Amino acid sequence: MIIRHRRKRSWEDWILDSVIFISLLLIILTTLYPFYYILVITFNSGADTASGGMYLWPREFTFENYSYFLNDSKWLKALGMSLLRTVVGTALGVFFTCLVAYGLARKELMFRKIYFFIIIFAMNFSGGLIAYYVVLRSIGLINTFGVYVIPGMLNLFFLLIAISFFNEIPEEIGESARIDGASEVKIFGKIILPVSMPLIATMCLFIGSGHWNAWLDSAYFVQNENLRTLTYRMMQVINQSMVPSGASEAANAAMSRTQVTPFSIQATAMVVSIVPILGVYPFLQKHFVSGMMLGSVKG
């Protein structure tokens, strides 16, 4: 039987532990307080928030910010467009990236080195925004929903990670399936994808959050107001509040009849935009941790 004697803590240990504890506590507070402050603003009267001096809890508690947000068709359309874009864009991005990676992982693929050279070259060099716009216009994607999802169907960064992941899957699995008469499509869908859940979960989280937070393409390549995303609407509110104009003054005058302000609506939109990510992350966390380790070691 092993008897372990607990070492008596010296005063140096107490000082070191105290410094570490206080440092971690400060990091946690400075990290979480901005989120908490935004949440407090959404439950406080916008007019009262504008007067300042509120730090810890709402002074004039109200649901009017959320009521205004949910009753404004412009914000609801933008929320729906962001959800649609995220779901469709993530599904297409993950599927096609995995499909191309599976093909490139096959060592007998013809011109395999040339394909890798093209991928590496495209990761390091781009044609710029104007050339990108010309390409999108030439294939008819400008001012359409496709401009959100089609250019992101192949993620080059995750393509390399997926190739590395598929290379580690024993070839005997695929060979035994081929002997049993399975086609390459069936092997990919029934065998490869089910054993690649850590990779798929990691890709879903990163590609999905990228689609959810993207706003540049909505600003540059879309003019249809029905195709605007939630993040674009939030940027629009920020720009209107920073540059006074006739339109922003009219919007402020309309809001002044209620207790909401552009800032309180913007904070409400931030909270609403965070909810889907917080709802999805716990379901992906189990695979996400192993997926991150995979990318760090083999990527």
- Terminal CA distance reads 45 Å
Please write the string of helix (H) and strand (E) elements: HHHHHHHHHHHHHHH
- Please state roughly what percent of the residues sit in beta strands, choosing from under 5%, 5-15%, 15-25%, 25-35%, 35-45% or over 45%: under 5%
Poorly predicted runs of 5 or more residues = none
What class, by secondary structure content? Answer: mainly alpha
Global geometry? globular
Number of strands: 0
Overall helicity: over 70%
The oligomeric state of the chains shown is single chain
Continuous helix count? 15
Residue-averaged pLDDT: 80
Rg for CA atoms? 25 Å
Q: Largest beta sheet, briefly?
A: none
Describe, in plain words, how this protein is organized in 3D:
The protein is mainly alpha-helical and 299 residues long. It has helices at residues 11-42, 46-50, 64-71, 73-104, 112-124, 128-138, 146-149, 156-167, 171-179, 184-192, 197-213, 216-220, 230-242, 246-256, 262-298. Helix 4 (73-104) packs across helix 13 and helix 11 (197-213) packs antiparallel against helix 15. The longest helix is centred in the C-terminal third of the chain and has 37 residues, at 262-298. The radius of gyration is 25 Å and the shape is globular. The two termini are 45 Å apart.
Short description:
By secondary structure, this protein is an all-alpha fold. The protein contains 15 helices and no strands.
Record the SSE blueprint.
Elements (H helix, E strand, L loop, with lengths): L10 H32 L3 H5 L13 H8 L1 H32 L7 H13 L3 H11 L7 H4 L6 H12 L3 H9 L4 H9 L4 H17 L2 H5 L9 H13 L3 H11 L5 H37 L1
Helix pairs in contact: 1-15, 3-15, 4-8, 4-11, 4-13, 9-10, 11-15, 13-15
